[in-house]
Amino acid sequence: MNDALRELAHQWLHPGTKGLALRQPLRQDTLGELGLNVLDGLLSYPVAVLRQSTLDHNIAWMRDFVERADALLAPHGKTTMSPQLFQAQLDAGAWAITLATIPQLRVAHRFGVKRVLLANQPVAIADIESLAALLREDADFQAWVLVDSSAGLQRLNHVMQQIAPQRRLPVLVELGADGGRSGVRDLDSALQLAREVHAASHLSLAGIEGYEGLWVSADRDADLQRVQSLLTQMVALTRRCDAEGLFDGDEILISAGGSAYFDFVADAFNSVGDTSRPLRRILRSGCYLTSDHGLYHGLQREMRTRHDASFRHGLQPALEVWAMVQSRPEPGLALLTLGKRDASHDIDLPRPLSWHRPGQPAPRPMRDARIVKMNDQHAYLELPVEHPLQVGDLVGTGISHPCTTFDKWPLMLLTDDSYRVTGAINTFF
Amino acid sequence: MNDALRELAHQWLHPGTKGLALRQPLRQDTLGELGLNVLDGLLSYPVAVLRQSTLDHNIAWMRDFVERADALLAPHGKTTMSPQLFQAQLDAGAWAITLATIPQLRVAHRFGVKRVLLANQPVAIADIESLAALLREDADFQAWVLVDSSAGLQRLNHVMQQIAPQRRLPVLVELGADGGRSGVRDLDSALQLAREVHAASHLSLAGIEGYEGLWVSADRDADLQRVQSLLTQMVALTRRCDAEGLFDGDEILISAGGSAYFDFVADAFNSVGDTSRPLRRILRSGCYLTSDHGLYHGLQREMRTRHDASFRHGLQPALEVWAMVQSRPEPGLALLTLGKRDASHDIDLPRPLSWHRPGQPAPRPMRDARIVKMNDQHAYLELPVEHPLQVGDLVGTGISHPCTTFDKWPLMLLTDDSYRVTGAINTFF
């Protein structure tokens, strides 16, 4: 454990920390010794919990997957923005941590991450200066960034020249597709940009990047076609750049991979064929770590149907948010202490999984009930009028889209399989 | 300034703080001396900014409004969860700060707030214990809470008896309405609950509460009818409780008022008539402080049409989020550094207000452009193909629903009218 992580473990949690009903400051690393259990009803609710055994399972599963795929993992850190989870991912062999913004990259560096992939073209001059300063000051720190325009490239080159002229910033050209997000829209323009990177005085062309994970629509056939089309183009661009001798380093990077299609990505990257120097295939899934009970659960199920038994016990949901029944003002309605500030609501509302009356033996499954609306601090749970749920009962919910739940919790509790609190992780948003 | 606020001012901001491209730690209270200007393009974008003069205007406007209405203001602190803004509201005469949860109440207390209205029935035993412990330990601290069920009442009474038997917890009975959130659904049941509060050994009946702000639908006539109906019921309940001698304190509290209909609330509360002891009319708007460019802007416009010239220069939007153009990959599309992690997306997506090229004299209005989608860290801006917007330009956006933007920024910058950074406020979510 490095100094910054140790400092986190030793920090004082103040009364007002969500999920904990602290009456005085508590040292974070003593949390696991208090004998707390989510099911006892003696926390402050809502509380977000991560099941340690499921995190461990998902980390091991993905490590095995990338090994079999002859790929490397640079898990997207923006999902969790948690230094302790970054460290767990690196300890399990992750090659780097991916980040979306320079402030995120700075957080990762502050907590000891020494190799980062910025899956964006940084454009703000002060952000690029901040990156260049890190590269100048910390010889052990390595960063790769994207470009998708000459304008972006020139900003990078200019700042590197000013601030860190002794290092060349390794750059991946981002390939996109019409209707997509960023990224150069066609192969010829991307090749042209690769030439510009190669020619830039303070940049080096390190590889090719794309992001296929956005295409999740109602039309799954069309989605898969677009994914395959982007991957095919990426492979072609990699070959053409290599054929022209544009890659500058000792190896060539090719990177894609959200959490929806990393199996297709791995397959496509294995079709590049011979290259002038070793090809590093970098997958960047972020949501694999916790998965969820919504969008990614469905995508995982789809992925399993594409594969053999090795996928059967694939990624499992590790994250739950537990709320308390605050009111049952109508026979078919309960209000939960669970709002837009506590759980993702951008893709689906949280899904009730189980309910529990503190003091009783074990949570029971929650059927025929659903959350139909959330306000800032409340959820509206519709349930059968005969359901025994009452004020003070607990409801465990699963979320859809981990990224937008993590960013609502500066502190998340770790539990064992019986919901005993064993510790906590921090997030930095 | 109390010690806790002074400590905040003196805290070190670390590299990785969103909006600031820090390369080393910076003492927060030196931020205003750096000569930063949002329009110079030398921050990290996105950055959330609060215009100080507009905050001051809104605070003064609302102070005048409640004065004219013979009401008191307990602004909802859950909107901002910012100790510095709480203090500004109290300095301008706010009677108390309203909070939604016990962790929020603890944050307010930690930063010196001595009078709070918890606009919810607290149900978690550990939360109630935390509140009772505060009441036991801090004789200067006053808190009012809601009940809407016997079960809730009994939990409160039991914990108060255990932990703070020397104080009676003042309670407001929450009146609701079918299809609404929490709150007792009819007058007779509410009256019965008021009797139970009055009879409880460690509680006192302090008043009547309701929340009318939720009814904002496409059918404005129906909304207004429901609002007026709830207010009428609240007035009737207040009279009946008073007639029965159920109120325990030296005064009677009646409280409602989100940010949509506080004018109706004030009118209704002035119709209660004579009471056995002084009636305190408590409004609880939270969003008045910053207003917005979306939902609350529209509601303010409606409110203005209901009133005379004193409303003409009413609440103004004080909060903007500035993003940078990261990519313009198609002629009609720009990608902004602005995602679901940075701005509200629960009611409307952010609205582009102006654009600016650093180095040029002043921002220009942004017409014919709109944000059509956001990912976690990106916004998709559709704009005319001939628009000169390019990589590195800034786009200022207005948001809809302040609560869900504040919770995305641990630090927000204060600016003057020319976007010079004069300081910062913190939030605690």
UniProtKB/TrEMBL annotation, chains A, B:
This protein is called Low-specificity D-threonine aldolase
**InterPro entries the record matches:** D-amino_acid_metab_enzyme, D-ser_dehydrat-like_dom, D-ser_dehydrat-like_sf, PLP-binding_barrel
User: Which Pfam family, giving just one, matches this sequence?
Assistant: D-ser_dehydrat
Where in this chain does the record put each D-serine dehydratase-like domain?
A: 318-416
TM region(s), chain numbering: none
